[in-house]
Amino acid sequence: MSEPIKPTANSHHFPASTRPEERKLAAERRTAYPYRFPRDARHMGGKFSVEENSARLLRYFYFERRLAQGLGSWTLTIPDFEVKVETGKHIFYHADAAQHLRERLYEQERRRSEVDSFRDIEIDMVIEEALSASDTPELLVGIHTVIGAALQTAYRHHIDDTCEITDAPSIRILKQLLADYEPMLEWAEKAIEAYMVGGIDEARLESWRWHIDRLLASIGGVSGADERGPRPTPLRTESTPYVRGVVPCRDSRFSTFRHTGDYNAADGQPRFEPGSYEDTRLRFVRTQRDEVDAIEAFGTFLWDIRFKDFDAEYFLARITWDEARHTDIGHRSMLALGYDPYELPNRLTSSTCRGPMEPEFAMAEINLFGEIGVLKTIGGLIDEARSREDTILVHISDYVRADERTHVRKGQHILKVMTDLGMQELELRTRELFTECLVNLGALPPGGTFGTLSREEIEHYIGE
Questions:
Q1: How many angstroms separate the CA atoms of 411 and 415, rounded?
Q2: pLDDT surpasses 90 at 457
Q3: Which residues constitute the domain of residue 375?
């Protein structure tokens, strides 16, 4: 039996207490073992303590949360169809990144309330300056090619620098986030290129990119640990604080209407017999394409209630992604039905009403009237579509119904965060505001004397 090893005073070296006979037997057992599994090539060690790791993850979380909020605030203002729809997806990618990082921070001994209450005025300055872009191309440059690209690089460096063994959960999360970042940033680069090919001045975009890049560098980059450079001047937000838009924008390919929610009234001449299956079918598909207004609604709600409740923000971001998907569904379905989607006028009635409205009433309209209204009728539409072997409509409406059920449930939590009003008072005030808006738009028949519209009447005139 070997003598126990006695540690040397003031020694930082701790030798192994190994025994030759035991090591020999271990080697024999390994040799006799029949399976040769892949060797774990990871290494122990990394640059970060739990405290430093957590500090960096908290900054990542805050960047992601602010990007989701900020992109939400631009959903009304973006005119270009593809960019508005893609932005609806990106809002959720950033919110989902924040959600994953929030849970990892909780595992690293930070209370969720502590994470949710974290603020950083320097990060706020960078985000809101990027949101002060003069147009959509500048927005994409600042948000994606500067801040998004910097986050992507920071995540890659964090993966390389943290311990592969002890911090494996953080590595897994960051790799999952990068799976969204790669196509998101690739799309942004192609979109910016499309703007430049279409006549947007490259020098202006490059100047804005340099400005936001220098501003980010002035706060130590994404991690806050980089060497700080001088802050660029002047900042747009110093003279004009950022405020979200309220007017819904569409690109020049669309013809639009806002004086009614009725497609037949807007078209002038109905395309099919009103009330027929063909009429209902086309109205449903057009409504899905025009869910572009729901991207605008839920995106602006996310901005308007920022920092009130993280779960409500996350639900709004997820619903925004769903509405972007519904818009895709409607656009593709029009093509499948033989239409050029841009030949059918786009309805702006809902966004025109909701854009300037307080978020609790705008949310109540879309949740209590719009989505519940869809659920009242979509089951019958699906049944009739099945009986007619209308496979396109069955396919899309089945998915839409499942989404709307989920939205109604999540909407109840969101409304409780937005307002302390009781449901009856909230519904009544919402009906009053929308009646006033529809009168001002001329959406109600001329010459009539109207009181406050009922729930069913608002469902009809708004046509969600």
A1: 6
A2: no
A3: 256-462
DSSP designation for 342: G
| Distance between CA atoms of residues 235 and 215, nearest Å | 9
Tell me what pLDDT residue 4 has: 57
348 Cβ neighbours under 8 A, 6+ residues apart: 248, 250, 256, 257, 258, 293
CA distances from 202 to 125, 141, 194, 197, 199 (A): 25, 11, 11, 9, 9
Q: What is the pTM of this model?
A: 0.93
Q: Is residue 241 part of a domain?
A: no
Short-list 181, 130, 180, CA closest to 152: 181
The Cα 291–Cα 464 span in angstroms is 8
Please provide the DSSP assignment of 287-308 as one string.
HHHTTHHHHHHHHHHHHHTTTS
C-alpha 53/C-alpha 56 separation (Å) is 5
**Cα separation values, 303 from 73, 128, 243, 329, 408, Å:** 5, 12, 10, 26, 20
Instruction: Give the pLDDT confidence score for residue 376 in this predicted structure.
Output: 85
CA distance 314 to 99: 8
What local confidence, expressed as pLDDT, does residue 446 receive? 56
CA–CA dist 204, 279 (Å, integer) = 47
Write the CATH number for 57.
1.10.620.20
Do the Cβ atoms of 217 and 229 come closer than 8 Å? Answer: yes
